[in-house]
Amino acid sequence: MKALFAFNTDVAWSRVIADQRRWLLPVVALLAINIAVLFAVVLPMRRSVETGTEQATASAQALGAAIAELKDAEATRDGQVDASKDLDRFYGEVLPANFAAARRMTQLKLAQMARAQDVRYQSGAATPESLRDSTLARLRVDCSLEGDWDDIRQLIYEIETGPDFMVIDHVSLAEGGSATAPLSLSLGISTYYRVAGNVR
Questions:
Q1: How far apart (Å, rounded) are the C-alpha atoms in residues 31 and 118?
Q2: How many CA atoms lie within 13 A of 127 on its CB side?
Q3: Of 180 and 62, which is predicted with more confidence?
Q4: DSSP 195
Q5: CB within 8 Å of 88: residues ≥ 6 apart
Q6: What span, in angstroms and rounded, lies between the C-alpha atoms of 163 and 166?
Q7: What DSSP element (H or E) covers 33?
Q8: 69 class by beta-carbon count within 10 Å (0-12 exposed, 13-18 middle, 19+ buried)
């Protein structure tokens, strides 16, 4: 090493260290302490912080998933409650309460609707059917009617769009014996009613 304030003069490292020992020892000691603190405290704390950050991220994701599942469960529950209310309303307000009400709706009311559309109600036969594993029964009605095409078409429209729960099973039209004779309509309709003792 070149001596300070001297030109072309080499000074041994051992002499420099010996001369500067009182400053070098504290600096070396501080450097050693810093390195020890770095390895003993800072690096483990850094790993701990990284692990904590990863755990916090995973916990936040798990919380988000749990909140989403809770919202889905609440929506499903609310949907089931609404569906149950709608079903109860359907049973209570739309379907006939019993066989007699179903028969009145399918025969008497159908005859009144036909009369309102200038269609002649000739005959009808009602057949009740029990449904397996159900609180409902089915009433099938086959009836014969006569009328003009426009009136028959309007009657069918009224049945399909009316407030009463009637399902058209089949429609059959036949021409009369002459060109001026009315059309013959064979109409099959069904409705459902609650069976006594199984009312919801």
A1: 111
A2: 9
A3: 62
A4: P
A5: 200
A6: 9
A7: helix 21-37
A8: exposed
